[in-house]
From TrEMBL:
ATP binds at residue 168. One of its GO terms (molecular function) is ATP binding. The keyword Nucleotide-binding applies. It comes from Mycteria americana (Wood stork). Gene3D superfamilies: Phosphorylase Kinase, domain 1, Regulator of G-protein Signalling 4, domain 2, Transferase(Phosphotransferase) domain 1. Residues 393-458 form the AGC-kinase C-terminal domain. This is G protein-coupled receptor kinase. It is an enzyme of class 2 (transferase). It holds the Pfam family Pkinase. The active site is at residue 255.
Amino acid sequence: MEAAQGINNECVFHTLREENLHRITEIMCFSLLSPVSSLCSRSQSRSYPTDRGETRKQPLQRAILSLYKVSITRYPKSAGLQSAACKECVRSVLDHLSGEPFQEFLNSMYFDRFLQWKWLERQPVTKNTFRQYRVLGKGGFGEVCACQVRATGKMYACKRLEKKRIKKRKGESMALNEKQILEKVNSQFVVNLAYAYETKDALCLVLTIMNGGDLKFHIYNMGNPGFEEERALFYAAEILCGLEDLHRENTVYRDLKPENILLDDYGHIRISDLGLAVKIPEGESIRGRVGTVGYMAPEVLNNQRYTLSPDYWGLGCLIYEMIAGQSPFRGRKEKVKREEVDRRVLETEEVYSHKFSEEAKSICKMLLTKDVKQRLGCQGEGATEVKRHPFFKSMNFKRLEAGMLDPPFVPDPRAVYCKDVLDIEQFSTVKGVNLDQTDDDFYSKFSTGSVSIPWQNEMIETECFKELNVFGPNGTISPDLNKSYPPEPPKKGLLQRIFKRQHQNNSKSSPNSKASLNHHLNSNHISVAQKFLFPLLVVLMESFGHSPMSDDGIADHMEEARF
C-alpha cells in the first residue's frame, strides 16, 4: 500500500520501507529495458543464465538502490524528492544498462529471439494479410470496412483511400500527413495505426476497430437527445486526454465533432479521422481555415494564426452538445446557411438550458471564449488548466489514464451502431485520372507495413507471443536459435508430392520431358500459382480418362493463357 502511495505521489520514495524500496528499484530496472529484464527476471537468486550455461551474479539492483540513496541526499525532503532525484537515478540506470549489460544482451540468445520477432514484424503487408468484412462507413477518399489479420485473428478497421480520388482532389499531402501523425501518436484515446499498405487501386490504413458507434449516433439516436452530465463528463475527460497526447506531439487536431469520436466495445472513446490534423513546428504558429461548420473557432474563421487553441474551442462545443442535445450555434435540424452559422460563432453567445449545472455552464463558457488569450487551456498550461476546472473535480485522471475507471455506458454487443450497408452511399467511379511514376514515389512513402507498438500489442493480446516465445528446458537455448543446429528440411505438401509422382511417370515415357518442364517452371514469367497448377491439371485429366498433353504442351498453353 505504501509503495503504491509513493508511486502516486510522483516518486516520493522517502516514506517507503526498505523492502518496498527494493521492489521499486527492481521494477525500475526491469521496465527500463525489457530485453534485459529477461536476463534479470530471476530476482530471488539475483542471478541469470547465459547462453553458454554460465551463471553470473546480478549486482544491478543493489547499485540502483545505492545510487538512489546518494541522489536523495542532494535534494532536501522539503522539495519532496520530486522528479529531479528520480530523473537522475533513471539517467544513471540507463547509462549503466547501455554498457556491459547491453553488450551481454547482444551476445545472448534473447537478442537472437528479439531479431526473429523484428524480422517477423517487418514482413511485407498486402491485402492477403487480411480478411475483408462488411463496410462500416465512408470517408473523404473511400470506404471504411472491418478486417481481420489472418495470422492472429485480430480485428481492425481498414480505411481505404482510393488512389485516383486522392490525385483528383490533390489530397496526397493530406493522406500522408494523417498516416505519419497516426504512426507517431501512441495513445489509448486516439485510434492507433497498426498497418499501412497499398493495393492496385487504393492506399489502406488499418486502424483500431471501434464497434460502439460514434458520439453523434448516441447523442441523437438513443432516446432523448443528449446525455446525463455524468456521462458527458466521462467522455469529455477521455477526449481531453486524447487532445493532450496529440498536443504533446505539437499536433493540433482541428476537427473535433461528435462524428469523429468513436466508442469501443467497452464504452471507452477514441478520437478518429486525423485528416485535418497538422504538426506545428516548434515555436511557430500556423494559419488555415479548415474544419467543420459550427465547430471552427473564431481565430480559424478569421484566418488568424494559431497553435493549439482551436481544439479547446472544439472541446467546448462538444461538451455543450453532449449535454444540450444540439450544437451551440445551430438548433437541431435547423436549416441555416454556412455564413449565418459563422456569424453566430463570431458575434453571438450560446444559450444554456436547465440541463447545465453551474460547473458545466462555467466550463463551456470558458472554453467558448472568443478571445484566445482568455480561453481556458490557452493560458500556458494547456490541458492541465482544463483538468483543474471544477467540472472535473470528481474525475481521477490518473485512474482514467490507467484504464481503471468503468465507463457509464457499455455498448450492447448484439446491437449494430452504424448504418445498414445498403444505406451507405457508394462512391462514383473516378474518370480521367492517370497514375504515373511520381504517384509511385508517394505510395512508397505511404506503404510502410506494420507499426511497431500496435503490432507488438497484437502479438501479446492474441497470445501469439506467449505461444511462440519459448526456449529450451530450464532456460536453455532452443533449436531454432542454435546456429550450429542443421535446419529442418521443408515439409512437402500434397501438390509437391503429386508434382513429383507425375514427373516420375513422365520421365519413363519421355526422358527429356522433365527437363523441359522444369525449364518452364523455373522461368521468370511463370507464377507460383501456375507451377502448382501444372501437376493438378495433369492429374485431373488422367482421372477423367483423357490423355494428358506433353509437359511442353501444358507449359505452352499456360504461357498463352497467362493465368
